[in-house]
Amino acid sequence: MPDTMIMFEPLSIEERAGGSVASPAADKAPIIPVPADAPPMRFRHPKYGYPTAEYAYHVASGELAGYACRFDFIDDGGKPDKKVLPITFCDLANGTRAWRSKGIPAPRPLYRLPEINARPDAPVMICEGEKPADAAAQRFPEYVATSPMHGAKSPQHTDWTPLAGRWAVIWRDNDRPGEDFAQKVAALVTKAGAAAVSIVPVPNDWPATWDLADPVPDGVDPNVLHQLLASAVPWEPSNAKEVDPLLPTNLDPMPPMTPMPHSTQKPYLIVQTGDLPATARQLRDLFASRGYLFDRDRPVKVVQPADGGPMIASELTPNGVVIEAHRLCQPMKVKDGTLTAITLPDRVARMYLDMHGERNLPSLAGISTAPLLSGDGRIHSVVGYDQASGLWCCKVPQVLVPPHCSLDEAAAALLLLRDAFKTFPFADAVRRHDPILGVDLVDLNNPPGRDESAMLTALLTAVCRASLWLAPGMLIVAPQISGAGSGKGLVVKAICLIAFGSRPKAFTAGHDRQELDKRFAAELVEAAPALFLDNVNGTVLRSETLASVLTERPARVRQLGSTLMLTLNSTAFIAVTGNGLTVSEDLARRFVLCRLDAQCEDPEARDFSPGFLDAIERRRAELLGAALTIWRYGRQNRESMRRGRPLGSFETWCEWVRDPLLTLGCCDPVEQVEVVKAHDPHRRRIAEIFAAWNGCHGDAPIRAADLADDVRQAIDPQGRGRQFVAAALDKLSDTRAAGFVLTRQESVGKWGAATYALLQTAADASDGTGHRDHRGHEGDPTPMTPMPPMPPAVQTGIDLNEDSDWRIVAPFGWRERV
Hints:
Blueprint: H1 13-18, E1 28-30, E2 53-58, E3 64-74, E4 80-92, E5 97-100, H2 113-118, E6 124-127, H3 130-139, E7 144-146, E8 167-171, H4 176-191, E9 196-199, H5 224-230, E10 233-234, E11 268-270, H6 276-290, E12 293-295, E13 299-303, E14 312-315, H7 318-328, E15 330-335, E16 338-341, H8 346-353, E17 366-368, E18 372-373, E19 379-380, E20 384-386, E21 391-393, H9 407-420, E22 431-434, E23 439-442, H10 450-464, E24 473-478, H11 488-500, E25 506-507, H12 513-525, E26 530-533, E27 540-541, H13 544-551, E28 555-558, E29 565-568, E30 573-579, E31 582-583, H14 585-588, E32 591-595, H15 612-618, H16 620-636, H17 651-663, H18 673-678, H19 681-697, E33 702-703, H20 709-715, H21 722-732, E34 736-737, E35 740-745, E36 755-760, H22 762-766, E37 806-809, E38 814-817
Parallel strand pairs: 6-7, 6-8, 8-9, 11-15, 17-21, 24-30, 24-32, 25-26, 26-30, 27-31
Antiparallel strand pairs: 1-4, 2-3, 3-4, 4-5, 9-10, 12-13, 13-14, 15-16, 18-19, 20-21, 22-23, 28-29, 33-36, 34-35, 35-36, 37-38
Helix pairs in contact: 6-8, 7-8, 9-16, 10-11, 10-16, 10-17, 16-17, 19-20
């Protein structure tokens, strides 16, 4: 385990007593399920060290039963080797309890059993091991993937009864033990009452021991996997010894599928030519029963893109409906008194797509690759569709988070995250030169500045985003001329790697606002965890769609290439980057602002070692655990959190994300909202008009015709005339900006003229900052001293006493300027 993970070290006395010393088998009895008060599993094998992978097993109720842990090591001959051992929480002979290397008693639960039970109508794919099963879940999301514990060694000790009445397909490893595994499991699943069992024929010319966790062999189209699955051979005791096909690697075009025995035949869908709507309703019921299609105001399917990127929601087209129909059934029509196989008519597919509100599919809010979080501090590792949140969950890593997070643990977690991003040029950060790296780094002996705090806030926002109803986006800006190469996109990619385990795909704004809104809508439909708008340079960002998505749920967006509107729930983390970028006032409160400034003419010429994102990706579980430690600290100590300024629409986000960081010494990113608003050109122009007005007329009522020339010039610089000025004043009526409000008094009499008066607002008259207090904001006049970001045990090696301009602040050891 890395030395930097001090938040999880040293182990407690109880953990040392139960974490790494082998015990005789008779001296340890597994407790199934694991008690709720059990400590997190931190098992260290006395010979093999810490596990390199952990696979959780659950009982039917969803409670944890134990783990299958993989240990990678170098054997006595110097060659890489591995072992997979069961780890359970045990009663020990000395009266204590601890995690031990002890198997789950037979009959053992299937891997991913909660997902099997949650999707009772989905077909099941059985693999030879947990790692291939996880890969199968990504490649074939319409299936529920599983494996018996210990793979091919002892499938007879697994409880297969959850597969009773289910369609099952077995995808074996490409070796002789894999063939034996397939035959044994097929017999066991059939005995347990499965409706049908098939075995996927893996080509014999593929590499030995190949499984679904491996990439397809060189030169093979990845789509071949779907063709292999489609050609799965039904298993029956009579042909159990004959399933050993030799298939060519090139399966395009695929030969016609041979008729299956009646017991495994796909159901017929009778196409009633005189009543196609009835056929569409039958198709609807079939799709709704399968569990792998979802509703995102259009039917969608969660798929893995061909480039191997993160999972997305792919909208079903009419052709897609036909393909999915034939995957699940065989359309038939009655001709001359007999049934004849046909292709599903396009009209039926279009009727199905037009059944708005009647498709009976579960609603898909988004796709999450991070743990789901509860307001009481609980962390849930969900696989598959979570009905409560409407999220499809996949690739969720196992993370170490203390069950009860202290201030010291949260502060150490914050330091760990700061250290990972210390090479970025946050505009207001205190920096120091590192002679070894030869670059300037953020000085971690000082509390985070506004811009580093904004980055940390954005990171924790991304981690929590799937579990938050609403959350602001992240805005990263750099100087107009010397901002290229500052690392804006790198920050976003690193945040997404930690939160979601994948690098987001960037898109640009296009040539106008309408094009931008179309691109936003297209991205939102895919329900990806992150939405990354890049290189919006030298402009003012305006987007009604973006504003709505950030503060409304569900939001209405226009469908690409159509006049129809889509109603979408979005859980995407939204990030926007640009040089010289500002946002309109309506977007200002919807973003956390982070500024980067390398303070040099050519930021891209700075010399850094390669592999930053690769290192972040390798450390994902560690850094994600650190972020969740801060979040859990805030949830478990919510009454003692420091409260920042209110932010309308994002109250829960303030409590979950902003306040814990504020308590640990970070700056309040909400205070930057006024800065963002001040850079809006429209707002600046109004401020100039009001300044000229106040200088010429004060608060005296005045008609438009009597305005001073300086005020008229500020309103109408192009001299378009009296009517333009009058119309502009009507629009500015009741506008509040720069500490003033423009009021309008209606005319007296038929021929009178309206008058206008510029009044100083009460809040700004008493608050020199220009901040207008919000409802519920008590405006503490004495700023609270930020709590420190780190305990003394995690300080860097710099001697702070050598700097005469700073003094040590006890007891935490960070510096304060004298």
